């Protein structure tokens, strides 16, 4: 697997690249808030639901800048710029440079998996639903399984991850549950959920290396 160059910029101001990075963070944050309002309406909730429940007053939000080298592997080598995964959190807003390579799998639990290229649209953002939102909506909104494949050309992207504050309670929404579709997940604090996901991921990576 190719390694990406990662540069972090924390929304709370701990690590900021420069004033351009600040502008991007603010604009990503505004776009993310508007998107969450639309999601709330789609779930038959009040438009400001995610704000009222305290998830966005001090969110865990950060910007990750990524570079994919793009070199192609040999014919018998399965090489990914980023292997198949879904994001852990609430939503991800992604801006790309137009170079192809990003793919999604609509039916992530079906085998064999079918992968589709995500086409670039100038001026548009790509939105990924995260695992936490899937949990919140009782699987009504499915997280996006995606990967990046090398295409023989260097590729850059900027991913903005917008998650609620650490002590925000994530439990299946009433509008997403019924007698025929009861809650599939127990309530959990956002911070505890993310910590456990990262712990399992890095433990798995270390075990595969050993």
TrEMBL record:
Segments traversing the membrane: 6-26
Q: Name one GO molecular function term.
A: dioxygenase activity
> What InterPro entries is this protein classified in?
IPNS-like_FE2OG_OXY, IPNS-like_sf, Oxoglu/Fe-dep_dioxygenase_dom
Protein origin, superkingdom: Eukaryota
- Keyword Transmembrane present in the record's keywords: the answer is yes
Q: Which UniProt keywords apply?
A: Iron, Membrane, Metal-binding, Oxidoreductase, Transmembrane, Transmembrane helix
What residues does the Fe2OG dioxygenase domain cover? 59-164
**Family as reported in the entry's similarity comment:** Belongs to the iron/ascorbate-dependent oxidoreductase family.
- Name this protein carries in UniProt: Fe2OG dioxygenase domain-containing protein
């Amino acid at each position: 697997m190719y390694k990406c160059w990662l540069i972090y910029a924390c929304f709370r101001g701990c690590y900021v690249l420069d004033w351009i990075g600040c502008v991007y963070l603010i604009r990503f944050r505004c776009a993310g808030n508007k998107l969450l309002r639309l999601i709330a309406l789609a779930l038959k909730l009040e438009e400001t639901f995610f704000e009222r429940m305290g998830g966005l007053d001090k969110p865990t939000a950060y910007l990750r800048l990524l570079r994919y080298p793009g070199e192609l592997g040999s014919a018998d080598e399965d090489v990914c710029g980023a292997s198949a995964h879904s994001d852990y959190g609430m939503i991800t807003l992604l801006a790309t440079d137009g170079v192809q390579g990003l793919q999604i799998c609509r039916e992530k639990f079906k085998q064999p998996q079918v992968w589709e290229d995500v086409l670039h649209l100038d001026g548009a953002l790509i939105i990924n639903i995260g695992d936490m939102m899937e949990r919140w909506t009782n699987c009504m909104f499915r997280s996006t399984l995606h990967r990046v494949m090398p295409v023989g050309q260097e590729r850059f992207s900027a991913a903005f991850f917008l998650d609620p504050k650490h002590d925000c309670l994530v439990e299946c929404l009433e509008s997403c549950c019924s007698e025929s579709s009861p809650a599939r997940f127990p309530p959990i604090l956002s911070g505890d959920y993310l910590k456990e996901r990262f712990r399992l991921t890095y433990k798995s990576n270390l075990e595969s290396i050993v």
